[in-house]
Amino acid sequence: MRVVIVNAQTPFVRGGAEMLADNLLATLKEAGHEAELVTMPFKWYPAERICDGMLAARLLEVDEWCGGRIDRLIGLKFPAYLMRHPCKVMWLLHQYRGAYDLWGSPIGDLSNAPAGRAVRDMIHLADAAAMAESRAVYTISRNVTDRLRRFNGIDSMPLYHPPPGAELFRQAEAEDFFLCPGRINPTKRQGLVVDALLRCRSGARVVFTGVPDSPAYAADLARRSETSLGERVTWRGAVTEAEKLDLYARCLGVIVTPIDEDYGYVTLEAMLSAKPVLTCSDSGGPLDFVEDSATGFVCAPDASAVADGLDRLWQDRRRARDMGQAGLARYRALGFSWADVVSGLLA
Fold first, then answer.
1. Any stretches that span the bilayer, and where are they (predicted)?
2. Cα separation of 144 and 199, whole Å?
3. Of 139, 159, 179, at which residue does a domain stop?
4. Gap between the Cα atoms of 224 and 193, Å rounded
5. Residue 292 Ramachandran class (φ > 0 left, ψ -120 to 50 alpha, else beta)
6. Measured between alpha carbons, how far is 289 from 331 in angstroms, rounded to an integer?
7. How many CB atoms lie within 10 A of CB 341?
8. Residue scoring higher pLDDT (154 or 12)
9. Do 151 and 173 have their domain in common?
10. Alpha-helical regions (H) of 68-214
11. Same-domain check for residues 153 and 82
């Protein structure tokens, strides 16, 4: 089968969506299919530019190229999934969240834009058309499926997949630090973790990894932590793959406190490393996997609750180890595989 994967991309930015697309492409090729990844640049500011991206995607019809028929189109992200194809399947990473669950929130971009409401309505109409013309609609998680049903009245099925390089993660004796990986921005809520550390009764330490999406936010966090927490906080910035695997293996536990994450590889990477996960009750994707008090802690999204969870893990290393082992067993029992994903998308 000849398959095209379509995805939107911010130039010079690489994250989970890009890794997912690359792994899907590799799995399709390994299964004997001809496959290509087609990406389109997407600029969302000012708000009116969103409509330009929608129009550009909608004008593209990719059922054939250079005389060769394309059998299947797999759409991943807005607005690329608006491209037309008679046999299109959605594997939805997420919609344009500013038009849906983030509308009116402090971190939503559209609700305060002069033309925001009009752009939001156009996104809703375009999404409805794209979903209706699709052969099937899948998502990457229960959280994305729930949003699609809540805001669009569309049923879909989650197709879960392993994180990149799942076979490379290893387990080692825990050392005296928690790991908090991820891009540094307000939606990942590293500020909540810093506030929690200020309330910890123990001497809990945290190593943060990831590059800043918001330099001002990152600079403010660095100033606050340096002034108040000293050596209890380390900002590592970007790390190599080998360094990442080493930090996962050696940490005491992994902190994952985003706002309503779509999926998030960090939770699964922690489980593969046999580490307990501390997350929040509004963190979305991690809640598919973290069992409160069994494989980690699900805390209220406030600094005092997060501090209490950190203190409990810091002060009871045996329980932290047992939770981590339970997380690894749970990951293995889930049986995620790329082969199952491809089978579903090409059915």
1. none
2. 33
3. 159
4. 12
5. beta
6. 8
7. 22
8. 154
9. no
10. 116-132, 142-152, 190-199
11. yes
Confidence of residue 223 (pLDDT cuts 50, 70, 90): very high
Residue 68 near residue 90, CB atoms below 8 Å: no
pLDDT for 307: 98
pLDDT at 12: 86
Report pLDDT digits (tens) over 276-334.
999 999 999 999 999 999 999 999 999 999 999 999 999 999 999 999 999 999 999 99
Same domain, 203 and 114: no
| 191, 291: one domain | yes
Domain match, 309 and 256 both: yes
pLDDT of residue 66: 84
Q: Residue 36 falls within a domain, yes or no?
A: yes
Of 159, 190, 208, the residue at which a domain comes to its end is 159
For residue 151 the two structure tokens come to 């805001």
Q: Are residues 64 and 186 in the same domain?
A: no
Q: Which domain holds residue 174?
A: 166-334
Looking at the fold, whether 98 and 228 belong to one and the same domain comes out as no
Whether the CB-CB separation of 205 and 178 falls below 8 Å is answered with: yes
Q: Are strands 64-65 and 68-69 parallel, antiparallel or unpaired?
A: antiparallel
> CATH code at 194?
3.40.50.2000
Cα dihedral 223, 278, 261, 150 in deg (nearest 10): -130
For 74-124, how does the pLDDT look when each residue is reduced to its tens digit (9 = 90+)?
Answer: 999 999 999 999 999 999 999 999 999 999 998 899 999 999 999 999 999
User: Cα-flanking dihedrals φ and ψ of residue 178, to 5°?
Assistant: -95, 155
CB 2 within 8 A of CB 18: no
| 264 vs 83: which has the higher pLDDT | 83
Asked whether residue 344 is assigned to any structural domain, the reply reads no
